[in-house]
């Protein structure tokens, strides 16, 4: 058994070098929002967010690949409107105690930054004319919160920004994504 493990380790670098590994940079804007299943709380807005990831694709053959990477998600969040007031952010470190007991119809904004660790599988089809289809599924992402700030809009109180809400937002978030892409494949003379 030890000899088999030793031989596997000896041949592993050669097997990895014979496979195709591609690196890519993924970046762009996005839209994020939050919602609640409580009928006293409604979603009242979204945030424009931004993502930047570095991703590696390890191709097993010409159709299947494993993917993994690391990246940043900046400005995730949204707005929630609370029909019933009260001490809505109990764990938050608020700048002033007057924001502890909020009136009815208070609007609270959430803005979070995360370090993302995505991993998953990518599948691609044969060429159909000049097109090739990619499916990136399933993709799992583990996100670690780095920053969480909030805004409060609750008349007659003055609006406030930059409230520290880290203790209220989970440090670790996991989710899945389904992504598909159509790629146009040009003849060799155009490359």
Q: Output mean pLDDT.
A: 84
Q: Helical proportion?
A: under 10%
Helical segment count:
1
Radius of gyration: 23 Å
The outline comes out as: elongated
Report the portion of residues in β strands: over 45%
Major sheet summary line: 7 strands, antiparallel
How many separate domains make up the residues? 1
User: How does the helix and strand content classify structurally?
Assistant: mainly beta
Unreliable stretches (pLDDT < 50, length at least 5) are: 187-191
Amino-to-carboxy terminus distance: 49 Å
Write the element-wise H/E pattern from the N-terminal end onward: HEEEEEEE
How many β strands by DSSP? Answer: 7
Care to describe what's here?
By secondary structure, the chain is mainly beta. It has one domain (21-190). The protein is built from one helix and seven strands. It has one helix at 2-18, and strands at residues 20-33, 41-59, 64-82, 106-124, 131-153, 160-164, 172-184. Strands 1, 2, 3, 4, 5, 6 and 7 form a seven-stranded antiparallel beta sheet that branches. The chain is elongated, with a radius of gyration of 23 Å. The chain starts with a helix and ends in a 7-residue tail after the last strand. The relative contact order is 0.16.
């Amino acid at each position: 058994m030890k000899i088999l493990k030793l031989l596997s380790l000896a041949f592993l670098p050669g097997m990895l070098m014979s496979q195709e590994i591609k690196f890519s940079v993924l970046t762009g804007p996005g839209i994020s929002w939050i919602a609640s299943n409580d009928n006293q709380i409604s979603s009242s807005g979204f945030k424009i967010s931004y993502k930047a990831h570095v991703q590696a694709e390890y191709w097993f053959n010409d159709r299947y690949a494993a993917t993994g990477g690391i990246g940043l998600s900046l400005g995730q969040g949204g707005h929630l409107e609370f029909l019933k007031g009260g001490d809505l952010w109990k764990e938050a470190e608020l700048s002033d105690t007057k924001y502890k007991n909020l009136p009815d119809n208070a609007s609270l904004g959430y803005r979070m930054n995360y370090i993302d660790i995505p991993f998953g599988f990518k599948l691609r089809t044969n060429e159909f004319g000049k097109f090739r289809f990619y499916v990136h599924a399933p993709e799992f992402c583990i996100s670690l919160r780095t920053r969480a700030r909030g805004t409060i809009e609750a008349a007659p109180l003055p609006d406030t920004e930059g409230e520290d809400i880290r203790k209220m937002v989970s440090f670790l978030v996991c989710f899945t994504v389904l992504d598909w892409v159509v790629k146009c494949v040009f003849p060799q003379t155009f490359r």
